[in-house]
Amino acid sequence: MKTALIVALVLLAAYLLSKCTGGSKRIEKDLAYGPFTIRATATTGKNFNINYGMVSHTNVAYTILHNGKPVGLPAALQNNTGLPYLWRVYALPGAPDPTLIAGSQSLYLIYLKNGVPVVEPILEQHRDFASVQFLDSENGQPGPFTEVFAHTDADEMDKLDSLTGGQYLLVGEHAVLDVKTRSIRYFNTNNNSIENYSFPSPHGALAFSPDRRSIVFRSEFQSWNTADEDLPDSEHALVAYDWEQDSGYAVIFDDTELRLKSVADMDYQWFEKFFEWQESEAGERLSLRKLEKSPYWTGTLHEDDTYYTLYPVKPSMLPAFLTFLEQQKGWTKANIVEDKFHEYTGRIITFADGALKFDVRMKEDEQSLTFSKHLYADANPEYATFVKKIADTFDSELASGQYQEHFSRIVSETKKIRAN
Predict the structure, then answer these.
(1) What distance in Å separates the CA atoms of residue 397 and residue 339, rounded to the nearest whole number?
(2) Full-model pTM
(3) Element (DSSP H or E) covering residue 272
(4) Which of 183, 252, 176, 158 is nearest to 214 (CA)?
(5) Rounded to a whole number, what is the distance in angstroms from the first to the last CA of the chain?
(6) pLDDT recorded at residue 18
(7) Is 390 in the same domain as 260?
(8) Per residue, what are the HEC states of 64-88?
(9) Helix, strand, coil share of the chain (percent; to 5)
C-alpha cells in the first residue's frame, strides 16, 4: 500500500512539474533540393524519467514539399516505428535528376516524372532499422554501413544529408539501388541461409567483386539445428551472393588457420590477405588464397582499457610470459603481491612495480592470457604507456616466430557451451 502511494505521489509530482515547465518548443527550417523543399521541424520538450527526473528531448520530423504541397507517403512508413513520422531525408546527387531517399524503417525514392512527384518503395518492413551502404564507394569496395535513425538534435537540421561516393547502394541488406539509373534489384528477401550459414552476421557488406555481381557478407553457422557431433570447428564463413541472379554460396574456412580471433577482425584488410577472386565460366568466384603457412599469432592491445590479450593460448603460455616479464622488467616472485585462483576469474597474479600494480590473468577455459592494470588500481596515465610498451615488445617477439608453440586451436563458442 505504501509503495503504491509513493509511486502515485511521484507521478503526480512529475505531472505538476511538467505543467510548470511550459509547453514544447518548435523550430522549423526549410532546405531546397531541386524542385523539392525539405521542411525540418524540431520539437523540444521535457519528459519525466524515473531515474533522472525531468529530462529534455528533441524530435526532428521531416516533410517533403513540391510546389508548396506535401508529398504523400504510403501508410507503411508509419508501421511499428514508435515514432510515426519521416525520420530522415537524403539527397542522392548521383541520380539522373533531383532524387531523394526518405523514410524511417521503410525507405522510398522520391523524384519527378512528367512534373509529378513519384514515391517508389525501396524497402518496406516492420522490424529492424533500415540501413544504407554503398558497395563501391571505397575504391570499388563497400563504404560504411549506416542504420537509419531519427535526428535528436536541432543542430542537425542545418543541412541536408547526402548519399554520395558510389553507384550501387545496398538498402536494408536485401536490395541494391543503381543510383545512376534508379533501378532496384531485390535479393534473398526471405532471409534464407546458405549451406546452413546465416548472413549478414554481423551487419553490412564486407567486399564487392570486381565484376560488381557478388556481394560478400560475413556469416555464422546455424548451430541451433545441428547435433553436437556435427558442429564445425569454426562457426564463421563468408557468403558470396550474386544480387542479380539471387543466389549465393559459402566459402568455409578454419578460424585457426586464418587467425580469426574475433568477428571484429573480419575487415577488408583481413579479407584481402586470405581470399581472392578467380575467373570461372559463371563469372568471378571467391576462394581462399593458398598460403604456404599461416601467419604468426600476435596479441591484441586494447588501448582504451589498458590491457593486452593473448588468445588462443595453451596453459604453457603463462610461465613463458612470466619469464618474459622477468627479462623485460626484472620482476620476480618478490614483486608478486597476490596470487589467487577462482573458477570464474581464472588465476590472477598481481605484480607491484613501485606505486603501480599490474595483473596477469590466465583463464584456461577461455584459452586467454591478459596483462593489464590492476583491477582496483587508481587511474594513472602511466598504466597505458607501460602496458603498451609490454604489448609492443611481446608482439615484436611473436612476429619473429617466438612463443608460437604456446598457442592453441580456436574452439567454437557453441562447442565450449555444449561441453559444459
Answers:
(1) 26
(2) 0.88
(3) helix 268-274
(4) 176
(5) 45
(6) 45
(7) no
(8) EEECCEECCCCHHHHCCCCCCCECE
(9) 20, 40, 40
Q: Which residues of the chain register pLDDT less than 70?
A: 1-23, 47-55, 78-82, 126-127
- Specify the pairing of strand 214-221 against strand 197-198: antiparallel
Nearest CA among 278, 235, 226 for reference residue 253: 235
Handedness of CA 192, 194, 195, 200 (dihedral sign): negative
Q: What's the domain count of the chain?
A: 3
DSSP 175-229: EEEETTTTEEEE--TT---BTTEESSSSSSEEEE-TTS-EEEEEEEE-GGGS-GG
Return the pLDDT at 420.
75
Residue 138 pLDDT: 97
Q: Is the peptide bond before 200 cis (omega within 30 degrees of 0)?
A: yes
Q: Please give the single-letter amino acid code of residue 121.
A: P
Query: What pLDDT shows up at residue 49?
Result: 58
The Cα–Cα gap between 109 and 384 comes to: 49
Whether residues 144 and 29 share a domain: the answer is yes
Residues of the domain holding 29? 18-166
Whether residues 39 and 157 share a domain: the answer is: yes
Give the amino acid at 35.
P
pLDDT at 326: 97
Tally Cβ neighbours within 10 Å of residue 396.
Answer: 11
Q: Which three cell numbers stand for residue 187?
A: 535479393
Neighbours of 168 (CB within 10 A): 21
- Of 293, 318, 349, which residue constitutes the final position of a domain? 293
Place of cell 554460396: 249
The cell for 309 is 590479450
Q: How many residues does the chain have?
A: 420
172 part of a folded domain: no
